[in-house]
Design a protein that fits this description.
about 425 residues, alpha/beta, eight-stranded mixed β-sheet, 19 helices, 16 strands, globular
């Protein structure tokens, strides 16, 4: 019996309650990712500290908490409860509208051709450098709110469009401000762009370390774009090692447009995750599996840039920890992890179970947060979705349908988004 304790939230009698993990696994791969832990006719309790206190069959929870009181009770009959989604790769802090480039892409221009013509990142950098901190925060805040409404409760956010120390720090301050003022969880990443390697190592990273120690900015990860014409393998190694030396997790872009042996390098350096990997080698895949280095796959990017799809099936079969991200940026404008999961299933041949694992526990692992996020287990943070469907797979199956499927988004046991349309509209 739980006695007369007061709790924050009771989600009662869900048709399906998707735990994802049931035994404290930090990630799922191979068979684990293919078969998720799901309860039927189940309830869940979140305490006043925002953490999950109990998960189980509805009648067992009802008896256990018969004398407890709750700040809020939600009847989930006929609905499904899932972990909040985790977006493991975004670039959401920038200024400038690049919709004009979409026509260029449709006409056949490649990413690097647009880049070399002064478009792409150059256009974004110019506008981001000119924007005030307040302007950047305002647009960033609205983007995060849209991600939250689409079910993401933890988002990795990169800087990187500054190209100079002043603008990079401005972007990181914007991310820090959002961390302190918004409900959505944020894992921040300092992304180096095309400055000289020595300048990054000798000036940028020491300043970042100073601001971390003072508590002014909290950065979790170090990122480099390892690519021809950007950072070569040796420069990437030097920057990532310098970031690791000041306590940052390695989480970087690799093997996207050309085979660079980024996966092999990441495995050697103990990287937590590598993103993109459209051009990864077979040996790189095996090295990542051995090193338990997560592959953050970005189906929106391959789709929008008409790139070769990442080898998700081969990675899964080799035992790589596969995660997903939206890669939200001016070049891949997608806020929706449900749509990302759908694309992963259709274009990368992942199963729906594998896609959900990749967008929850494995994405959390890629950010070093799977001990607190990514599954519905006792002791973890109470970040959840309630969807208006009797089977959870509708969240992936209904391409673009999350706006009428997601009934509640909950962070630390508090409802941060309630979709009134779910009470008046059928989701089928």
């Amino acid at each position: 019996m739980a006695g007369r304790e007061r709790h924050r939230l009771l989600l009662e009698n869900a048709q399906q309650l998707v735990l994802v993990c049931g035994r404290g696994e930090p990630y799922l791969r191979r068979d684990g990712a293919a078969s998720l832990s799901v309860l039927r006719g189940a309830s869940l309790v979140v305490g006043l500290d925002g953490c999950i206190k109990a998960v189980g069959q509805a009648n067992v929870i009802r008896n256990q908490f018969s004398e407890a009181t709750f700040e809020r009770i939600i009847d989930c009959s006929g609905k499904c409860v899932l972990p909040g989604l985790v977006d493991a790769h975004t670039h959401p802090v920038w200024a400038g509208d690049r919709v004009h480039e979409f026509a260029m892409k449709l006409a056949g221009a490649s990413y690097m051709e647009i880049h070399q013509a002064g478009g792409g990142i150059h256009f974004t950098v110019e506008h981001t450098q000119k924007a005030t901190e307040e302007e950047l925060f305002s647009t960033f805040k609205h983007r995060l709110e849209r991600m939250l409404r689409a079910g993401s409760t933890l988002v990795e956010c990169k800087s990187g469009y500054g190209l100079n120390l002043e603008t990079e720090l401005k972007m990181l301050r914007v991310i820090e401000r959002a961390k302190q003022s918004m409900d959505i969880g944020i894992s921040s990443t300092g992304k180096t762009a095309t400055e000289a390697t020595d300048d990054i190592i000798n000036n940028h990273l020491p300043k970042l370390k100073e601001l971390k120690l003072s508590g002014e900015i909290h950065v979790n990860n170090i990122d480099v774009f390892c690519e021809k014409g950007v950072f070569d393998l040796e420069s990437t190694r030097r920057i990532l090692q310098a970031g690791k030396d000041i306590g940052l997790q390695i989480n970087f872009h690799g093997d996207e447009l050309h085979p660079m042996k980024s996966a092999e390098l990441g495995a050697e350096l103990g990287a937590r995750a590598i993103s993109h990997l459209e051009e990864v080698s077979d040996e790189g895949i095996r090295a990542m599996a051995r090193a338990k280095c997560a592959a953050v796959l970005l189906p929106t990017t391959a789709y929008m840039l008409r790139l070769k799809q990442p080898q998700a099936r081969k990675m899964l079969e080799e035992g790589v920890i596969v995660a997903l991200g939206s890669d939200f940026n001016p070049n891949a404008y997608c806020f929706s992890m449900p749509m990302v999961m759908h694309l992963a299933c259709v274009n990368m041949k992942m199963s729906m179970n594998e896609a959900l694992a990749a967008a929850t526990i494995n994405a959390a692992y890629a950010l070093g947060k799977s001990d607190t996020h990514g599954s519905l287990e006792v002791g973890k943070q109470g970040d959840l979705l309630v969807i208006n469907a009797s089977r959870w797979k509708h969240l992936i199956y209904q391409f673009g349908g999350h706006d009428t499927l997601i009934n509640y988004v909950i962070v630390k046991g508090k409802v941060v988004y309630q979709n009134e349309r779910c009470e008046t509209m059928s989701s089928y």
